Amino acid sequence: RISRMLEFLFWSGQNDSSEDHDSNERRVPIHPFSPFSQGWEFVSGCLLLYSAIVTPLVIAFYTEDQGFCGRVPTIGLDMLVDLFFFVEIFVHALTGRVVRGFYVFEWKRVLRLYSTQDFLPDLLCSSPVAWV
Prior knowledge:
Layout: H1 2-10, H2 35-61, H3 68-71, H4 75-93, E1 97-99, E2 102-104, H5 107-117, H6 119-125
Antiparallel strand pairs: 1-2
Helix pairs in contact: 4-6
C-alpha cells in the first residue's frame, strides 16, 4: 500500500511507452509530471515570488550599519527559503527530463543533462545569501 502511494506521488503513473526502454533499467525516482514534482515547482514559484518582493525591500530599508542580520525581520524565513533552494538542487538531480518529446529516465543521462544544463545556474542562484 505504501509503495503504491509513493509510486503515485513520485511517479506519474503514466506508461512511458513513447520511448523504448528495458523495464529493469534503473530510473530516477521522480517523474517530472508527478504530483510531487508539480507541487514542488508550485512551492518553488511561490518562494521565488516572495524573494522578488521581499529582497528589494530589505536592501532598501535595512543597511549593514544598522546591524543587517540582527534587525531584518524576515531573516529566519529567508534562511528557510535559501535552504529550500539548496535542497531543490538534489530534487532536480533526481527528476527525469523530457527531451524533444521523449521522457529521459536513466540515471546517467539525467545526471549528464542536469550537470551540463541546469546545475551551475541552480548552484549560483541557490547560494545562501542570508547565511553570509
